[in-house]
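User: Continuing from earlier, I have the next pair ready.

Assistant: Great, send them over.

User: Here they are, in order.

Assistant: Folding the first of the pair now:
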Amino acid sequence: MGDQQPRAYVGTSAWNKPQWRGHFYPEGLVQRRELEYAAERLASLEINATFHGLQSPATYLDWRARTPDDFVFSVKGNRTVTHDHRLMNPARNVADFFASGVLGLQEKMGPVLWQVSEYLPFASHTTEEFLAVLPHSVGEAQALIEQHARTEADRLSLTAADRPIRHAFEVRHESFKDAKFLELLRRYDVAVVVTNSPPWPELHDVTSDFVYVRLHGDLDRRPHGYSDADLDEWAGRINGWLSGKACPDGRGRDVFAYFDNPDDRGTRSPFDAMHLHDRLGTDPRLYRGDTTFQPPLWE
């Protein structure tokens, strides 16, 4: 990230899925070791537990300690912010989220994903108030915690080294297909999420210095997950963002792409992620000096 060559971080939304056991996770692998197993085969994972409830500082430290040095997590913002309060009262709610220990991921912290409900329409004023609050560095997050958090700020948050914080915004209501919404994202340097799922709008606009993709798939038309042709198509799109050819200013972007496809058994996501990595030529194992593992073919 930063001044380095743009890189693709491809993985899955969450990793502790029971239906993966015996398919992606081998028989006999203890649940405690599933994160390590996934992290050795994928470049990144999206943490979804943070959406359902605030985690502890110790949990973030544990996730950081059990993953490779070059690994990156994306973190899904808590539903209190996006669903319960519908983006309102953003300063206190966002402060509470960061005060829970998110910054303990340190150098392994990737973008924060804010996903709003399909029942929430676009409201320019509310959206802008929310975007204006988001901290874009650890220092800004620490200041927000000190000013607004309802509980005593976690010490890890106050001592973490300063670095940029990226944000991505995922919408599920058609009213967000509005030029004003995209203008706000560019103004506040927040990436619009490219959401691949028929029920929700799919926006491909580049609004920040990175691109964030969530590949939910289409259960009706593709019950067995993404096909080879689908993965070829997405690899082409991602290469366009990486190279800058698909970006309005010609500058390449880092790309974060996560599979959460609702296939017939819910087991395809990690395999799709590894196959997409192979197509991009950015296999995470190559960064770690391990070329012995061969990703499985289609089941």
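And the other member of the pair:
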Amino acid sequence: MTLLTYAALFLASVVVTLGGCALFTNSIEWLGKRLKVPDGAVGSIFAAVGTTLPETSIPIMAIFFGAGQDRIDVGLGAILGAPFMLSTLVIPILAGLLLLYAKLGKRAATFRLNYGEVRVDLQFFLIAYGLTLACVFVSFRLTHYLVAASLMALYVYYMRIKFSGQQGDQTALDPLMFARRSTMPSYGMIGLQSAVGLGGLVAGAHLFITAAKALSADLGVSPLLLALLIAPLATELPEMSNSFLWLYRRKDTLAVGNVTGAMVFQGTFPVSVGLVGTDWNLGSSAVATIALALVAVGVTFGQVLWGGHWRPWLLSACALLYLGYALYLYGS
């Protein structure tokens, strides 16, 4: 393909993703309002799980229904790449956009968050991913099965905590796009719009990864770089798009919860699939992604624990972990 074709595919993926994002975020906000659930659950559960389910099918299909060693590499790359990218790239970009919006006079340069809920998300991720790393050094399969079961139970407990929170003020919502004249749209219309929006997000990610695979082949990029960095960049486009849009609309709880909630989900359910379906024998590059993700989340958690809030410039600096690792893989 020519450079113009690549550019057209990337542009089309962005347009489709943004369109799906607008539909999905609008419908998810209305679903939360109709169900009277806390804002934290809307972002961390509804939006996060909704946008991660399509990409979660990648490791399931690769590990349990694929053939050959390549299936293991693809599955593990999908499992480990997503948390790594969310923690070392998406959160830093979110902080950078906050600073950009502030410079443009769109909002203040501080996150408006319930940091107690943020702390809960980060704690759950650190526990889950800490167990994930520990299993690398334990070859006993029964231990892997027990940890997998523990991670699933941990996520169920996490959902219980999120749904028990206080409901936020969700009165100032734009009309549902599929029912603009309705002051309280039906669940059917909300579900239909959610499905169409999610379909747009998946289609946009598919276009992106198609272009990325072709470009990486032409440039001679290693398969590991594609599995751990490029593919997750495409599959995490839904989370990024949703969060960036919510941040622009000053709905910080939804924006941040969408990312941190996705991290908790990605650090529990897909990891359980990997622990059960493979021998969890990871190479040094794969182990490095787990360690770097833990470092990045440790920095974000430390800011909340000791400073009481996030400093956007310090969050943005965590992107150096992603860039450094990408350069290391590219040069190896």
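Worth noting for the second one:
The mean pLDDT is 82. Residues 47 and 103 are 28 Å apart (CA to CA).
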